[in-house]
Amino acid sequence: MNSRRVLVSLLILNLAQFCLIGFLLKKDSARSEVVPVKKASTKTSKEKIKPANIFTNSFGWRDVESSDYKAYIANLRGIGCPEETVRDIIIADVDKLFASKMRAGFASPKKDLKYWEPEPADWNKIFSEEKWKQERIVEKEKRTLLKELLGIDINSERRKMAGEEDVLEKHLSFLPAEKRAQVKSVLEKFGEQEQNFREKALEQGGEMSAEDRAELKKIRKARETELGKILSPREAELFELWTSDAAIAARHAMGGLDNPSEQDFLTIYKLRKQFEGELDPENVNFDTPAPHEKWEKAAMEIEEKLKTQLGDERYAEYQRGQDHDYRELAEISRRYSLPRETAGKIYDLRKSAENQTIKIQADQTLSEEKRKILMQELRQAAGKNVQELLGEDAYKRYRRTESAGWLQDN
Can you give the pLDDT of all 410 residues of the chain as single tens digits? Predict the structure, then answer.
């Protein structure tokens, strides 16, 4: 980690030096007295051309750096630093400023620990809940400062630097930039309130009471009210279709459908939304039989209605999407740029092989030796078909997963 910080520091220093060089060249060019050179004629060929007077300056980093971050940023921009470089320098400086506060959130390790001595075992003292709370407070202060100075969200910036996708940004892409920022601010505000509330409930025993659930609903209702002041009715509808629990569950359920459509999504989403209250784990106390039965009844009713509305074939595709093994196959197919239907074909091969296995195992006319031969032939034929569908590289990857256990010898 230290070596990485050193590399980042060197990079920022080099970028800063580049900015300074550009500034110096610009100032030298502006302050130099350039004497125009006339083309020499045959009569004045022996005349000497007077050299231009060149002046240097004593400009240094202290002329740019400032304890006032706003002045510091203005100075960096003033010498022509690219905006990305300005951000890198300021973020690194702010990280350093808050580093001591961050370190204060953790217990100091024993400095004179010998290599033969055991590591500290009391992790509760090293990583206590209070210290994690303090860390979140410090992180929030840092985010607020960088938002004010640079107009950026540091978490989003770091995800970009790490090549990670900002899922919320993608889900809110239907909104103009200004509204996106407002919505994110509201979500962050009430997200923090909900987090604090949950932590308080855990400290008081863990299980949320009816009063706790009512308070949590108030927080979410207040969030909806504030978002309603920002979003138009259509924007609010799209926000719901992108971010609600029912929408997220519906998208996840779409994983098994070939060529999923908007109508497929809306069918699943509306049913999930209809039973959202009954399916919410926070509304169910699984320690008592009645709520558990209510949850099971709601889940079964959804499945029955889905089968009716989607049709048998589409419902079968929906069901396989709930299977972890199928989703793993679909991910491998996606990673190796294979046709979407590849996962479905292999999934069907597996189901067929499983049915044949049951028949072979149940056939009492077969000897144990004959049964083993038939099972081996079945696995070999299935493995060959799967390899042809996936290709060599993807097939090797698939064979290393738990999902490929049906191709292995028992």
Answer: 444 444 444 445 555 555 555 544 444 444 344 444 444 444 444 455 555 444 445 555 566 667 788 888 888 888 888 888 888 888 888 888 887 776 665 555 566 777 787 765 554 555 556 666 777 778 888 888 888 888 877 777 777 777 777 788 889 999 998 999 899 889 988 888 887 777 776 666 666 677 777 888 888 899 999 999 999 999 999 999 999 989 998 998 888 888 889 999 999 999 988 877 665 655 555 555 566 677 788 888 889 999 999 999 999 999 998 898 999 999 999 999 999 889 999 999 999 999 999 999 999 999 999 999 999 999 999 999 999 999 999 999 999 998 888 988 65
> Number of C-alpha atoms within 13 angstroms, CB side, residue 228?
6
206 SS3 class: coil
CA distances from 232 to 58, 178, 183, 237, 334 (A): 57, 14, 12, 9, 36
Q: Which residue blocks in 275-340 are alpha helix, DSSP H?
A: 276-279, 289-310, 312-320, 324-335
Cα end-to-end distance, the chain, whole Å: 45
Of 191, 178, 171, nearest to 238 by C-alpha is 171
CA–chain centroid gap for 158, Å, is: 11
Cα angle for residues 77, 79, 82 (degrees, 5° grid)? 50
Query: Which residues make beta-bridge pairs with 53?
Result: 33
Among candidates 60, 64, 53, 59, which has minimal Cα distance to 31? 53
Rounded to an integer, what distance in angstroms lies between the CA atom of residue 106 and that of residue 125? 9
Q: Are 57 and 27 in contact (CB under 8 A)?
A: yes
